[in-house]
Queue: 3 jobs
Job 1
Amino acid sequence: MLESKDTQNNIICGRNPVLEALRSGREIDRLLIAHGVSGGSISEIIAKCSKRGILIKEVSPQKLDYFCGGANHQGVAATFAYREYCSVDDILDFASEIGEEPFLVICDEIEDPHNLGAIIRTAEVCGVHGIIIPKRRSASLNATVAKTSAGALEYMRVARVTNIAATVDSLKQKGVWIFGADMNGEDYSLTDYRVPCALVIGNEGKGIGPLVAKKCDKIISLPMKGRINSLNASVAAGVLMYRVLECRSK
């Protein structure tokens, strides 16, 4: 998804600037190509992005104009993350180094950057060791996320993975319990979170994907008494993170 003009201060516009950023090894979040653009260095830019597994998105020239704030983009632009991504192993290693059981949050296609930023903010104060997001169909670490996190992004490790389901399998093999948040689960207060664990927070509209939900060790739910049957993703994540913190503080 394209974000608002807030992302203009972490965007590179134009063929040569984008190509040089790629050559320098800079961590690129995604490449934006205007419909119908070709020739010149475009093929080389696309090839380099494909080789590095960078998401390539084709957009209308009008959208690219808006996204670049009127800058001369020559049909191509790239966004870069406000903070460098780490690996899942980096997160687990950090928990080990400080002598704590791993505590992770997996965001399964959280698309609203305000939600992701709010989750990062709460995660930092709740002692979460790291957050995992997918490369596709997810908000990235852009300006809106950085702003909403109120500085927490500077201290939070964020890993970006190709496949959430495969990552869940890998974590389970390493002894991490996976708890998925869904309205049709067990009361969240009945679970002991002092084990190595990861909370899975699903998409704002669809929730956790069926395959990921199937792989969870347990589905947990928040009790609700009102007429609506769901909470904002970042609010639900916040309640669950504080529950983990409470368990581990005893």
Job 2
Amino acid sequence: MKIHVIVNPNAGKRIIQRNLEQIIGKLILDGTAESIRVTRTEKTKDATQAAAACTAADTDLIIGCGGDGTINEIVNGIMESGEDIPLAILAAGTSNDFASSLRLPDEPEEFCQMVRDAHYRRIDLGLANNGTYFVNVAAFGMFTNVAHTTNRNAKNTLGRLAYYLQAAASVREQLVQVMPLEIEVDGEKLTGNFHLCLVVNSKSVATFRKLMEKADVSDGVFDILLMKKLNIFSSAAEISNRILSGDFYKLPSIQYLQGKAITFQSPKNEDIEVDIDGECFGTLPLTISVCHEAIRLMVPEASLTL
């Protein structure tokens, strides 16, 4: 097996980087890998370019090591290449929602066993504005800037808890922000005022492990969570409590949909920023189409049917 490792050396804790070194050594020594080459990214789009340059002749597997943004870049590179090269994810970020939802291993022996077993699952991707693929989530509105505003030292020290605390502390401020929207899901139109919009592939987003209860990464549809306008004074405490308890999705203001063709527009042409896989993408309007079973993902046997 010829393996290309694409790693963001700045992502996550040092232990993940040490795990990667062990994984490379084990796969070479036990004969699983015929060859392993490593690309360490230095700037934006390096991971995309490295993945796009891979061919079926020189690469049997890409191992992506980094956070959600790095994996997003690699997936875009694979799609750009036109080669059906499978991807294995060694998650190294703080939240790693997609990897967590599929129980992808990050311990060296478990990860190496996954590579030896070579089980693959075809997964869906989202395509935003006909130009950018994404693995897990497109989001805008309330809380979607939490990943960018949370202190890096706090993330390294507290992990996911840092996100919960940052979100809970800013609830009252964020409830003031309301977005008038025109939304279309598979031809069905709805309008209204919203605090939050999420379009998600897996069950996990923003460190909430079962936020999208009906989600399946291979079902050909993405799950949509909308939070309608709330009363700021009566809702701030309840939202904070539900964030910290992990059952945010049970709020009565939440509307849950599924669809394969999704459009969001701001009738007032407001500059509403969109976040895709944890990175700033641009502003509305946003059109999302689901690309069914677009890439092959290496998974443990137990995750083949999750």
Job 3
Amino acid sequence: MKKTILAFALLVAITANAQNEKYVTVMQKNIVLMDSAKSTQDFQSAANAFERVGDAEKTQWLPYYYAGLALARAGWIDKNLDKDANSAKINALCDKAEAIEKNAEICTIRNMAATQQMLVDPQTRWQTYGQSASAALEEGIKLDPNNPRLYYLQGMNVFGTPEAYGGGKKNAKPIFEKAVELFKSFQAKPLYPNWGQNEAARMLAQCQ
């Protein structure tokens, strides 16, 4: 009886390990696909691939996170993309991710989605989407005050805000400095987000 139980336990462990290896392999492949994307269609294809992984895995938030990140990147490069429809899809993916685990990384995606919607017409949309973008970062900092991507995005928000409203290079500089400093000690887990360091350094250089 003991041998049967041990054999069954070993079989379960081997199966779980094989499934985990398959998940890691597919995720690595999709991350490469996203990082090499050049067009809106490329990013949307990567997002769809990540979402399929998330729907299959059920307990993994990272696929939905990366699907949202891919669509956010599409939003930055495509001036003609419907930012409201794209952001609605991003937030739906964030909802799926947060149903599994609520964390600061997902807040960065919500910030980008809201920022893109606000930039469609800053003067009329600031009170809604601008506030949503800021609120996402505030929530993220509560969840993880040492996440450097939060400060990079916060610095970007301040950098793009007129000086008369507390923005500009001078006010953004200390925020970018904090992001750069935090990146020095930040160690991402395998498959976890690992972007923003070079971008933060470039923005800090522009504030000198």
